[in-house]
Amino acid sequence: MVRIYALANQKGGVGKTTTAVNLSAYMAAAGRRVLLVDMDPQANATSSLQVDKNALSASIYEGLIQGKPLADVLVMTKHPGLHLVPSTPALAGAEVEMVNIMSREARLRRALAPLLDKYDYILIDPPPSLGLLTINALTAAQSVIIPIQCEYLALEGLTQLLQTIKLVRENLNPGLTIRGILLTMFDTRTNLSQQVVEQVRQYFPGRVFRAVIPRSVRLSEAPSYGEPILTYAANSAGALAYEALAREILAADEPKA
């Protein structure tokens, strides 16, 4: 059965897209069939997988607004088992265009329906906002992964996100759950990072992933080369952390005997 995870945080710069790209790559490397859906008009996930957003004939925009089948939109990445529904800047106007469309919050869920039996995992990377694109991602997903940076005010804004998840659960997607909270940009040199880790684990017992993603130059460099950290710097601290995260999720998702 396919598992559909949305990576959401309205706060920008928390490693959301970095997590979407690298978690997808490690899941595919572990033999899973993975689809990454770029729902962000910035199209950073698309660029991070060496797909030229300016050369695309179709993207998630055509799927959401024009009803084009996503099977005709997705592209094969150079990583076996990993496919991408790309984004382009045209998506920036989608929220306005969807306002008068019937059941606008469920456009992505309906678009993904024909693909569900073709993948083990579908990861959705919405923009850092709580607008209609993110609502579509939450409506289509089974669970949410929430990246939080290990910095001052890390929990600021999280209450608003949790309230949005609650509203989506009550009105659009009753089965929506929080898969886990991921601590990112951990700096081993500071006490503050460790304090944030302890604070988040205290606030959300049992909901925080064991894997913690470090602040890493290699992780920052990899997208400019169109590579996930798996192929850019496989032995770096960031790579080992994302590999650990993928293993943690895959192990927990395995059916119990």
What do you see in this structure?
With 257 residues, the chain is α/β, with parallel strands linked by helices. 38% of the residues lie in helices and 18% in strands. The chain contains 11 helices and 8 strands. An 8-stranded mixed beta sheet has the order 3-4-2-5-1-6-7-8, sandwiched between helices. Helix 7 (158-171) links the parallel strand 6 (143-149) and strand 7 (177-186). Helix 1 (16-29) crosses helix 11.
The helix/strand class is: alpha/beta
DSSP summary, beta strand count: 8
What gyration radius follows from the Cα positions, in whole Å?
Answer: 17 Å
- Count of helical stretches: 11
Distance between the termini: 16 Å
Helical coverage, percent range: 25-40%
CATH homologous superfamily? P-loop containing nucleotide triphosphate hydrolases
Strand residue percentage: 15-25%
Strand order of the largest sheet: 3-4-2-5-1-6-7-8
Low-confidence stretches: none
CATH topology name: Rossmann fold
CATH classification class: Alpha Beta
Sheet having the most strands? 8 strands, mixed
Report the CATH architecture: 3-Layer(aba) Sandwich
Number of domains: 1
